[in-house]
Amino acid sequence: MNNKSHHKTWLDNNLNIYKGLTTSVTGIIENLLNKESIEYLAISGRTKDIKSCLEKIYRKGYKDIPSQMTDISGIRIIVYFDKETHKTGDLLEKYFDIDQKNSEDKKDSLETNKIGYRSMHYICKLGKDRCNLPEYSEFEGLKFEIQVRTVLQHAWAELAHDRGYKLSTSLPKKLERKLYLYAGMLELADSGFDDISQEIDAYKSELDNKRIDDFEEISIDSVSLQSFFNNWLKNNNIDTDCIASYGNWIEKLVIEIKGVNINSIGELSSAIPEGYSEKLREYLQHDGHSFSMPGIIRDWLLNYDHELLLNNVNISWLLDEESYNLIELLLGEDKAQAIRRSFLEKDLFVT
After folding, report:
1. Which of 41, 51, 171, 236 could pair with 78 as two cysteines, CB 3.0-4.6 Å apart?
2. Under 8 Å between Cβ of 215 and 228
3. How far is 276 from 287, CA to CA, in rounded Å?
4. DSSP assignment of 178-235, as one string?
């Protein structure tokens, strides 16, 4: 059997195993990142087809496919900021066997006066401990590649390499100069966004360490609002497990709060109805009862000045009988009836 036939036979017999490896590693990485609260845009896996494998084997002159061809199974992780590429790298080194000799940070291979493809590449194996488990035993000894990129690094890679535009090839000097200019701007933006992200983290950490009384003069923004709300829950002994996730509502809440001319945390704190936390805590003690951050803060705004809220803000939510009954419980009957009348007039009450 000649080498070509031997390689094809080996791939025919083993490619499905690599497909399973790709699926398994993708799932492992997703679970690890979620567990460690590392935010990411996407995790994707691909297994080379036979044609792609054979082309690389002949081009590189590989003799031993399992040891030499390390990217039959490939996983790509796209994170938002450069700090997260390093957190992800630390996580991969903790949970996989890394071939340090053949892994690399592509930034390190660029000359100081060059701009180009940047990504962290890890050549990995699952490791003996994991492969001792029955569901991973067939993957023992198999290598796979993990690429870790930021969003902007990925954008450059797509344009310059993956999509075949070949922006990294030889170009006329005028176009090459323009290419380096824009690539440099992209790299600068990537670094700048990473710096801003770290400053936001530092700001959040500073707020999280404050006592609730220290929020008085702080301006309302998405970070300070979230930190104050978490602090308020803790200070009032409200079980956070009963507070549902608020998703992407935080920016809308900031707009609504400022729409009633509340601009500082101190002003928002003054808008909280007397006895509200006690009533909310009692409500949440019943089985199956929960609440959300938007619901709680909107109660405060409705109590503060529901007519100003309706007149100044184009709200995207409605009241119904269930929410009315809860407002009546938490804000009192008189206030609830006034709110109901105003929402009916604006056709924002579902009967």
Report:
1. 41
2. yes
3. 20
4. HHHHHHHHHHHHHHHHHHHHHHHHHHHHHHHTS-GGGGTTPBP-HHHHHHHHHHHHHH
* Amino acid symbol at 230: N
| DSSP run (H or E) holding 76 | strand 73-79
Pinpoint the alpha helices (H) of the chain. Answer: 3-35, 50-60, 65-68, 82-95, 128-131, 151-157, 173-208, 222-235, 250-259, 265-270, 276-284, 293-312, 321-331, 333-345
**Integer Cα distance of 203 and 223 in angstroms:** 8
How far apart (Å, rounded) are the C-alpha atoms in residues 316 and 28?
Answer: 39
pLDDT, tens only, 122-176: 999 999 999 999 999 999 999 999 999 999 888 887 776 654 455 655 678 887 7
Q: How far apart are CA 107 and CA 30, in angstroms?
A: 25
Q: Which of 66, 75, 76 is nearest to 22 (CA)?
A: 75
